[in-house]
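Tutorial, part two.
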Amino acid sequence: MDLFERCKKINRYIYLFAGFALMFMMLLTVADVILREFDHPIVGTYELVGFSAAVVIGFCIPYTTSMRGHITVDFLTMRMSAKIQKMLLIITRLFGIFLFVFMGYNLFIMGSDLLKSGEVSLTIQMPFYPIAFGIGVCCFLQAFTQLVDVVAIIRRQS
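Running the prediction step on this input gives:
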């Protein structure tokens, strides 16, 4: 199994986790709406849905990248030579690597600050730091996915 396939497999697992978070979010929202009709809303639904949404978004990015599922606007680049297209792909991936390493690093700093301060959500007293650390890990996975993509682009014959 080559590096790209291994990376895709890891990303698939965190994507699956994001899918479970999305299902949880939907079921919780539906249950809360139904229970509100009987004057028994679920306490902390808003916070749990917010945390779940952060997990869904953060954990989907690396898999979407490995499947080349992001939107690309190539009406300008398709008119350029293959060599220039390849160079632009590499440059944009390198910028992406820098961005996601920067974000992941800062999310780890934020997570450790949240852990030290003991900050929790207002209603259900759930700590914030696991979400920051989880999304930070996903940012590093995204950077690794883009690095693998750079290697694949370089290996491709033009």
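Residues 3-155 form one domain. In part three we will examine how such features are distributed along the chain.
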